[in-house]
Amino acid sequence: MKNMILMFLFCIVYQNGTAQNYVPTIKNNTELNYVCKLHGQTRTLTLTAQTVGDGLTFKLETRGVKSSIVMLPEAVKNGTELSFNQGEYAPVLNLKPSETFFMISRSAYEDLVKKGSFVYNNTTYILDKNEDKNSVSIDGKTVESLHVIAQIDETEMWIIKNPEFPLICKIIKNPLGINPTLVKVTDR
Fold first, then answer.
1. Which H/E stretch holds residue 52?
2. What is the enclosing helix (H) or strand (E) of 110?
3. Average pLDDT, stretch 112-141?
4. Is the pLDDT at 18 greater than 80, yes or no?
């Protein structure tokens, strides 16, 4: 009986240890694989990160389209706009100093954590504290994320709890019709 109780306790401790939430990080050559719902169509999208100092470039690849989306250090730090460019306009796209791509800026993330909200593209996003809706998983691992809801429309975003690179891991109800979901992260 004693052995059975010890085995039961071991299983509980093991389950709690393996059920820890996952926080993806970005470093050179980290590959992010998204599935995007675009105006009723489904597309896969691969972003490969290239970090240089405080700047970040995503090498984008989707349906034969290849492009490099360049975020300036000031955008990564203090950006206030999200670019929804699909890489179709130029082989290299330099975003404005206020624009980020597939992530929010560090200062917006800091506002979200400290104040429970942030403003992006002139839209206020409020932290949703409803635990039932905060679950996102990648490769079967629950991701530590913050769920936000836009105050002007029904857009919902899940942002990875990573103050250095607060990636957007999921968007739904986007009025632009672009709803990506991060499905796999690979470090190379």
1. strand 41-52
2. helix 106-115
3. 89
4. no
